[in-house]
């Protein structure tokens, strides 16, 4: 049950970052460097939260440091890209494309981590492709 609580909380928080990020960009449309300040504040908050968690439990394996650095780099670039995309486009499309990264993760798992491809996984990927099509399809140009 705790797993689903954290899963729901993470979905809620990711959705909130997109909504708040779009609103921030709307309020600061004419200010140069506003998205840089947003990203700096966001990444500082993440850093301090992880620092507090680390100080509570200092047990770690040095072998994970390269993965941690790679994660930090990807996380930083992801949020910089997301904020810039939110500045230029819609929340719906930006959020949808961000969630489509799950397709890449799923395919990676199937091919490189020998995760089982179940019928439900196939249905999920098919519905994700359908949602992308429905969001991008503009109908007949007449």
Number of helices: 6
Shape: flat
The value of Rg in angstroms is 18 Å
Unreliable stretches covering 5 or more consecutive residues: none
Report on the architecture of this protein:
There is one protein chain. This protein is mainly α and 142 residues long. 79% of the residues lie in helices and 0% in strands. The protein is built from 6 helices and no strands. It has helices at residues 2-27, 34-56, 65-88, 91-99, 101-112, 119-136. Helix 1 crosses helix 3 (65-88) and helix 2 packs antiparallel against helix 3 (65-88). The chain is flat.
Structure characteristics:
0% strand, single chain, 142 residues, 79% helix, mainly alpha
Compact overview of the structure:
By secondary structure, this protein is mainly alpha-helical. The chain is built from six helices and no strands.
List the helices and strands and how they pair.
Elements: H1 2-27, H2 34-56, H3 65-88, H4 91-99, H5 101-112, H6 119-136
Helix pairs in contact: 1-3, 2-3
């Amino acid at each position: 049950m705790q797993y689903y609580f954290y899963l729901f909380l993470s979905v809620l928080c990711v959705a909130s970052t997109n909504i708040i990020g779009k609103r921030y960009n709307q309020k600061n449309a004419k200010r140069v460097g506003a998205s840089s300040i947003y990203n700096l504040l966001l990444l500082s908050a993440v850093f301090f939260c992880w620092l507090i968690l680390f100080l509570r439990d200092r047990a770690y394996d040095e072998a994970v440091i390269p993965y941690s650095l790679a994660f930090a780099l990807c996380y930083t670039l992801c949020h910089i890209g997301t904020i810039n995309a939110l500045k230029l486009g819609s929340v719906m499309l930006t959020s949808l494309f961000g969630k489509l990264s799950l397709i890449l993760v799923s395919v990676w798992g199937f091919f490189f981590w020998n995760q089982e491809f179940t019928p439900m996984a196939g249905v999920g990927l098919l519905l994700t492709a359908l949602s992308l099509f429905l969001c991008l399809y503009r109908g007949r140009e007449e």
